[in-house]
Specification:
3 domains; Glucose Permease (Domain IIA); 11% helix; mainly beta; eight-stranded antiparallel β-sheet; Nuclear Transport Factor 2, Chain: A; 23 strands
Length: 316
């Protein structure tokens, strides 16, 4: 919003940009006239890079990246990198993304077009590619889908408070027993995402789990989310959910000493360690799409090389 006044503070004009429309109010004598029209936005492609000192958001803030882009980076690499436990000081990232400007000022941030994350010396590179009209996804530079069928973690940012174990001292029951899941400590109300595409098999109270959601993915995979404070609006048995959709919120219901998410990953009904199991991949680029994809990937690979060899944090 921008306002122009005279020396006495009387409003002369007002410009309010909202969702791509520009509302203009101008003074004409003692009257004010208003009109609304589509804003003239200029799209630019911006490149930026940064280094991890303590956390992803700390590094993106230092690089001048908006939170909207930082969250996309975390989502893109969430099936390969566990941002709760895998980050190391000195890890680096580079990102190419869309920005819309109005009269020289950024007003909206779009999609990440390409990104590179170097974690513990290993480089992960992805580009966004439209494989059909209004349909696209992220792929590695050789055309493999960057999206696994399951997220490595259903929370964006938290900490692992209890790992997968055959013997753990239960803080409530005061006894040794197997812990066939992973606990993530996070504040009550933290959003929980579906680890993969699937259908809600159960949503309600279930013994020591308290409020729980159980999802079925294809025929042999199920995921469980326990100790929830509440469920996403409209969620119930039979609801079809996409990977990354918010399904519930962290809580401390059931046998819990504090707010956290108890997460289980099951194959044919048997719990597996979600932090160690190899996640199945999504479909790759089709052979007939490969030549066009390779050209796009080459352009972004050149940009990654430029960002690695420059000290500029941001480049339009």
């Amino acid at each position: 919003m921008r306002a122009t006044t005279d020396a006495d503070g009387k409003l002369l004009s007002l410009r309010y940009l909202n969702s791509g429309n520009l509302l203009s109010i101008d003074r004409n004598g003692d009257a004010l006239a208003a009109k609304e029209e589509p804003a003239k936005l200029e799209q630019r492609v911006v490149m930026s890079s940064g280094e991890i000192k303590s956390s992803l958001f700390g590094a993106t803030d230092a690089a001048g990246l908006p939170d909207a882009i930082a969250v996309q980076i975390a989502d893109i690499f969430s099936t390969d990198i566990d941002f709760h436990r895998d980050l190391r000081k000195g890890d680096r990232f580079s990102v190419v993304y869309e920005v819309w400007y109005h009269e020289g000022e950024p007003v909206r941030y779009g999609r990440v077009l390409a990104a590179e994350f170097i974690n513990q010396g290993k480089s992960y590179q992805v580009v966004y590619y439209n494989y059909a009209d209004n349909q696209g996804g992220y792929y590695t530079l050789d055309g493999k889908s960057a999206r696994k069928q399951f997220l490595r973690s259903p929370l964006e940012f938290s900490r692992v408070t209890s790992g997968f174990s055959s013997a753990r001292f239960h803080p409530v029951l005061q006894a040794w027993r197997a812990h066939k899941g992973v606990d993530y400590g996070a504040p009550t109300g933290t959003r929980i995402k579906a680890a993969g595409d699937g259908v809600v098999e159960f949503a309600g109270k279930q013994g020591g789990y308290g409020n729980v959601v159980i999802m079925r993915h294809q025929s042999k995979y199920t995921t469980l989310y326990g100790h929830l404070s509440g469920f996403a609006k409209g969620l119930h048995k039979g609801t079809r959910v996409s990977q990354g959709d918010v399904i519930a919120y962290v809580g401390a219901t059931g046998l819990a000493t504090g707010p956290h998410l108890h997460y289980e990953f099951r194959i044919d009904g048997v719990q597996q360690n979600p932090l160690r199991i190899a996640m199945p991949a999504a479909p790759h680029i089709l052979p007939e799409q490969k030549p066009e994809f390779d050209q796009a990937a080459k352009r972004y690979a050149d940009r990654f090389q430029l960002l690695r060899t420059t000290n500029l944090a941001r480049l339009d």
